[in-house]
């Protein structure tokens, strides 16, 4: 018992396990020998009778039926690693074969003792429930290894900003004369000057791009303090934030410099776009500048392709799906806004109060590399004025925007869910009437409409119009349990494609549609939970996080569900190549037999998390 305890204390999660639980494990663990080539556990053995912890040697977990075993197609387990967590927890046969790759010793406890240990130890229980998160980390590492040569040529986007800061920061105080600050910028060859208070907390910034409009053209007196000239409340991130966090911040706000601060909010340094993307073929500055300076649609077409290329570079570096989809959405938002800006130069809409609405995946900030258009307009008609002429002007404007979006790779919606459709260019009262009709009479078409249109946000124009509509919608739906129940029935029409005998239930072409049978499962339930609990966000992940707090669901359970959603999103992104047409028929389909063993395991676990989420919905509405 002493030897086993000493061994276990060298590995996670056993080194953090409660003393009583560790003693229980050490007391019941039996050490067994497995010669090289011996099968320890296979699917044919049925429901696992034991939980194993590798003590010495190496155990190979592989997809059964694989013709060739390679490092990428298999998973090696060494000392301290354990198996089969998913199968023994669910009391089902293992979907992988575990073979001794060399003479090996494994501790084993019975299935009943494993379940008892789960109940005794919160630490062990947390480890098992967060299993998918640990697998996701391994998958990202594996993907990075596959792209090792390519990643070595590029700036790694997971690097903490603190490590990117190479020089001590140069700064001035608000009282410093503008001339003195500019002389330092010139001497040090700086792109910006940071202004700090007496405790070195950043209070402002002045960049080179500010000089022409604020100093030269404005005839600013250089003897006056820089505090009168600077941009207050500069964008900043903690030193522990990653390079892709900085990239997302820059893309979202259109800035080229970010201040890096320590734990006490004191200036540590400045990170620029050049620091982040110096080693990448396509830089954020190039894309952002290309969008902002685009004089025509041809220039925006080039920017659209650059967005896809940069996203694929980030996929190759192992960036997580949530950050990737936010990154893509932020740049696509900038692209759409510029398209709208160009259209406004052709259409005189001065004085018209309107908002351009994004629906569907764009409304949820969850765009992948392949998506069509889903948009509309909300506008306010002046009192005692005929609004129809305004509507006609807005529709003509929308036709231009829709056409130009299509030219930039976002196909026209086959279902005509576009702002140029007169039925989707509505006043707030008309939108409320439309939504209200679907809620009062939730027939199949109304439920389908709700699943598309209730995921919205204002992308350009008066955001308050969208906020007010969201507030009204939440109040209206929250008290209508019959409508929510019908939405729940609709959400349960598609089940996770998990087989009872085989791993997955495949469609006729041998594939799984990761959008229809994957991401949608999470999206539909999250929408219902958000409407039921009054969550304002349109993002699936934020809906799950915020609704779970109101419903009292544990953070660990929600984290596992979100990890499952993120992995399916990541698989969709990895399947969409640069040459793929936007919204091509097969761009969300995947043959699970083409996945390596690790990714198959995660995909199965992701579908189990979707099934768990649906089960909660089923119990809540007694379906």
Automatic annotation (TrEMBL):
Keyword Kinase: no
Protein name (database record): Signal-transduction protein
InterPro entries xref list: CBS_dom, CBS_dom_sf, cNMP-bd_dom, cNMP-bd_dom_sf, Diverse_CBS-Domain, DUF294_put_nucleoTrafse_sb-bd, GlnD_Uridyltrans_N, NT_sf
GO MF term (any one): [protein-PII] uridylyltransferase activity
Database matches in SUPFAM superfamilies: cAMP-binding domain-like, CBS-domain pair, Nucleotidyltransferase
CBS domain segment(s): 165-222, 230-287
Pfam families reported for this sequence: CBS, cNMP_binding, DUF294, DUF294_C
Species for this entry: Thauera chlorobenzoica
Keywords of this entry: CBS domain
């Amino acid at each position: 018992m002493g030897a086993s305890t000493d061994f276990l204390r060298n590995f996670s999660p056993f080194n953090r396990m409660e003393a009583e639980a560790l003693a229980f494990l050490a007391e019941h663990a039996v050490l067994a020998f497995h010669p090289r080539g011996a099968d320890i556990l296979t699917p044919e053995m049925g429901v696992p009778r034991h939980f194993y912890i590798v003590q010495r040697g190496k155990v190979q977990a592989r997809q059964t039926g694989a013709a060739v075993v390679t490092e990428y197609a298999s998973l090696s387990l060494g000392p301290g690693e354990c198996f089969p967590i998913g199968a023994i927890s669910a009391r089902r046969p293992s979907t992988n074969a575990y073979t001794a790759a060399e003479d090996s010793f494994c501790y084993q406890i019975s299935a009943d003792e494993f379940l008892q240990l789960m109940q005794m130890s919160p630490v062990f229980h947390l480890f098992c429930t967060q299993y998918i998160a640990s697998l996701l980390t391994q998958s990202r590492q594996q993907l990075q290894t596959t792209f090792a040569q390519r990643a070595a040529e590029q700036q790694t986007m997971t690097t903490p900003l603190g490590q990117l800061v190479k020089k001590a920061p140069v700064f001035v105080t608000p009282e410093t004369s503008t001339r003195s600050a500019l002389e330092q910028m010139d001497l040090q060859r700086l792109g910006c000057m940071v202004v700090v208070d007496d405790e070195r907390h950043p209070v402002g910034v002045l960049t080179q791009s500010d000089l022409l409009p604020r100093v030269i053209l404005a005839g600013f007196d250089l003897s006056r303090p820089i505090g009168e000239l600077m941009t207050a409340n500069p964008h900043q991130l903690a030193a522990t934030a990653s390079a892709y966090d900085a990239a997302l911040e820059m893309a979202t706000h259109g800035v080229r410099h970010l201040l890096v601060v320590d734990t006490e909010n004191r200036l540590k340094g400045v990170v620029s776009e050049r620091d982040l993307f110096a080693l990448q073929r396509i830089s954020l500055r190039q894309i952002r500048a290309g969008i902002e300076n685009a004089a025509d649609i041809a220039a925006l077409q080039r920017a659209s392709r650059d967005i896809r290329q940069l996203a694929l570079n980030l996929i190759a570096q192992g960036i997580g799906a949530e950050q990737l989809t936010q990154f893509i959405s932020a740049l696509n938002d900038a692209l759409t806004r510029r398209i709208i800006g160009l259209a406004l130069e052709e259409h005189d809409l001065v004085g018209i109060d309107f908002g351009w609405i994004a629906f569907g995946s764009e409304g949820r900030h969850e765009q992948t590399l392949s998506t069509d258009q889903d948009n509309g307009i909300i506008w306010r008609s002046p009192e005692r004025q005929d609004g129809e002429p305004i509507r006609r002007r807005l529709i003509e404007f929308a036709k231009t925007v829709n056409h130009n979006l299509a030219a930039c790779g976002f196909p026209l919606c086959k279902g005509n869910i576009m702002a140029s459709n007169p039925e989707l260019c509505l006043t707030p009262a008309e939108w409320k009437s439309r939504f209200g009709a679907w809620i009062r009479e939730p027939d199949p078409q109304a439920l389908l409409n709700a699943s598309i249109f209730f995921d919205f946000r204002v992308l350009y124009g008066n955001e308050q119009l969208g906020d007010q509509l969201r507030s009204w919608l939440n109040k209206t739906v929250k008290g209508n349990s019959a409508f929510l129940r019908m939405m729940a029935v609709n959400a349960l029409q598609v089940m996770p494609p998990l087989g009872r005998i085989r791993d997955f239930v495949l469609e006729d072409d041998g594939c799984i549609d990761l959008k229809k049978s994957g991401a949608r499962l999470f999206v539909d339930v999250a929408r219902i939970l958000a409407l039921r609990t009054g969550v304002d966000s349109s993002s699936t992940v934020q809906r799950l996080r915020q609704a779970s707090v109101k419903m009292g669901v544990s953070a660990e359970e929600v984290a596992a569900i979100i990890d499952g959603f993120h992995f399916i999103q990541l698989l969709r992104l990895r399947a969409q190549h640069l040459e793929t047409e936007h919204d091509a028929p097969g761009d969300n389909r995947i043959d699970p037999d083409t996945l390596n063993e690790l990714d198959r395991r995660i995909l199965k676990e992701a579908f189990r998390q979707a099934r768990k989420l649906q089960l909660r919905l089923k119990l809540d509405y007694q379906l």
